[in-house]
Amino acid sequence: MTLPKIKKTNTGNKSKAAARILRALLCFAFWIGIWYIAAAALGKAVILPMPHDVAKRLIALAGTKDFVLTCLRSLGSVFAGIFFAGIFFAGIFFGMAFGGVLAVLSHFIPVVKTLASPMLSVVKATPVASFIILLLFLVNKTAVPPIATSLIVMPIVYSNVTKGFSSVPREKSEVARIYRFDAVKKWKYCYLPCIMPYFAAACRSAVGMAWKAGIAAEVICSPKGTIGSALYNAKIYLESEDMFAWTAAVIILSIVIEKLIVNLILGRFEKEERA
User: Fold this and answer.
1) What distances in angstroms separate CA 168 from CA 112, 117, 267, 269, one per listed residue?
2) By C-alpha distance, which of 239, 240, 238, 217 is closest to 229?
3) pTM for the whole thing?
4) S-S: 164 plus which of 27, 66, 107, 198, CB 3.0-4.6 Å?
5) Is the distance from CB of 249 to CB of 61 less than 8 angstroms?
6) 249 shares a domain with 143
7) Under DSSP, is residue 69 helix (H, G, I), strand (E, B) or coil?
8) pLDDT in tens, 140-178
9) Is residue 152 located within the same domain as residue 21?
10) Is residue 235 part of a domain?
11) Does a structural domain hold residue 98?
12) Residue 263 has what DSSP assignment?
């Protein structure tokens, strides 16, 4: 006797999604309310403007051609840094033959890890501002944001990828050896399932850090036509509404970038693993 199939409904998932959206909206409303109270108590729009004034200015800026070009220039700098880091530490997991060289070599050749770890520890411990100031002496100021971004991203991706290698169970390696898996099967069935969750976590952290480092570099270097230079100019001319509007633009772009990179690129792999 066969049991009747039970149709799965998405009601539960929709309810959870609605609850998450409601919580997010309530949280957003709470902090906007705090902002209103603080701005009203301070009473100085030059220092802390009202949220609706910032929103108006952001909408006005978003409607201009310069706003789009400025965002694209900053995005280009940040993505250049992320791509640079990805080629060296994580690209192999997307089929790039020469990507992830250092992380892979560190796993299979202990001396590489011994040499690379101190260098990456120094990079992680060095303040972003120090990197930016040092780079200003070495390269053109337009090249500083992508290089600074890559230096911040590299240790995050590298350390997570190496942890992923370390998490591969010995049993999987033994099975691969006994059944004489070729290199492709080893990567597919042994390494990738263990490494990808760590790589996904690295991307979540790296995207936010890269965006912060890129904008900080632009503020200090002030390359023409970037978000960082717009923020700096707004500060110089005491245009508080512009400063808060550009900051809001940075936050929105950061969230969008993270969702695109993590959910669209890595989400598919994670869904397949859960299935």
Assistant:
1) 19, 20, 21, 17
2) 217
3) 0.64
4) 198
5) yes
6) yes
7) helix
8) 877 787 777 777 777 777 788 888 888 888 887 787 878
9) no
10) yes
11) yes
12) I
